What does this fold into?
Amino acid sequence: MSAAVAAFPAVPRTLARRLVPLQVAVGLQGFILWVAVEKLFMTQIGFTPRSVGLMAAAYAAVVPLLEVPSGILADRWSRNQIMVCASAALLASSLLGGLSRNVPTYIAAAMILGVYFALNSGTVDSIVYDVVLEETGSSDQYEVWIGRVRLVESGAFAASALAGGVLADWTSARLTYFASLPFVAIAIVAFLRFDEPRLHRVAEPVALRSHVALTYRTMIREPRVRQVMLLAALVGLLSQAVFEFGPLWLIALAAPAALFGPYWAALVSTIGVGGYLTSKLNLDRRAVLSVLALATPAAALALTQTHALGAVIAAQVVLALLLAIISIRAGKLLHDGVPSNLRAGVSSGVGTLSWVLFLPFSLAFGWFARAHGVQRAGWFLTAAALLVALLLIAPVLRHRPRPAAMSASEHDEFACKALVELVTDYLDGALPPELKDKFQTHLAGCDGCVEYIRQIGLTIGALQEADLHATSRPQASASSDPDPSDR
Amino acid sequence: MKGWLARAAANTRLRGEEPRTRFARQPARWFAPTPAVPESRFQHVGEPFPRHWRRFPEPWAMLDPADPGVGDTLAAAVEELPATWREVIIARDALGHDAVEVGERLGLTPRQQRAILNRARARVRERLARGLTPEADR
It folds into this structure.
């Protein structure tokens, strides 16, 4: 009945408005009250450092396996539904965790949490990317928006950590599991309200075998790549270890439940603060790198030496912060050192390597901490931190000239690939003079681009002729389009 | 089937990429910009002419808008586009509305409006090409 009005919506759908439900959902999904007091609760139901290590190892073993089915689903299915399923897994995991009274049940709950993480990982990034592309025509603003979404998420992490600590102090650690359930349930509703993108950020299908072989060769043969990969994987391992085993220090020192909240909030905020600091520090300077390389093992060493609660917390927060900075640095080195078509493969190689290394590490840590106390197990962290420091500083000491990321000519040349991006600007007369010259010069010498532009012209002509108002009526097949006001 | 497997593998790889611990994620992941025309149509670095056509677009004989096949392909192609792209391409190319007016109505900057139109046209062209020169272009 209001078709005429709907065709010209008074308020344009904009990027910001469209992303609101997603941000609400991600924020609610991050409001997990039990995370900060998890280790406290685990100790109450009979976990020892050894079984904590076992749980972490089981989790590390199962996550890479879950990545495969979720990668298949991601392409075949709605991403809103994937996020809903992820939230459902989080709901189930929290419920089972809250109900558990022994170690095996809780490990099962942790496995279900693995399902949540596998489904969740990367999905939000892809969704934000596609929505930005759909609403602005380019991905330029992706980093701004994913930054905002992550900010909401980390704000929720910190707030829920504080609230969870207080709640556990007033009532019990067990209650924080049940109190988290409503937030996740509302997150599901928010995901369902989100108008999901229909573009799919599909990675180019490539000739699988040769690509895998090439990626593998790059990872194995190039010593520089190997070194950076190892650095990135070790940083991943170490920060995983701080988040997983760090709270055991507080338990060993009998910290009150309320302290777990601010402690965890500080720990999770290091990731955001680390990102901010990295943008301010010049990590190409030797002095800065040396400070990082000295401070990281020093912070880990402090954990083996002190019995003061404040010092332990400070050491862990500093260690987590340094690791956040180094991980961004390692990511950049990897990014610069690997050709773009292999980057994704190599960085997922890093991810896998990190999980694979973490598995024996966590078992050994747990076993040793049970036998000799968590403080002395801190030597495991110190050893890993020393390795990180060496790998961080080694390339600087060897004075290797840093290769240019890409040959300059590759970007300067105005090739066909650049031309097709600018066709509409050209036809609309919106190209600046010097680009217009390049465009026309290229066109004069390239039959392929001439044909492309001719075809775009024919397409526009056909669109003018076609009675699209009549043909683009809501069709029977338009069930995939839930929003009839688009017409 | 093979393409499907490759895409599933690529997605799986994408998921393994995110640096994270059991509870915390690293800030953001770097994504390469998505081109208007699929990357595979151009030569990669290492080939003789990087960033140039791998194969020139196969010439179209003629495009007869009255041909019901063409009309249906067009309608289907436009229908497949994201809502904002669809509105832009219908307003600009089918109804011949003015760029400024379309941008204002949809809350887009002129640059965004042109970028969306360029991608939408490229998509629709791709669909038509698949119908017109089935073997060559895909």
Observations:
- Chain B touches chain A through 95 residues (CB under 8 Å).
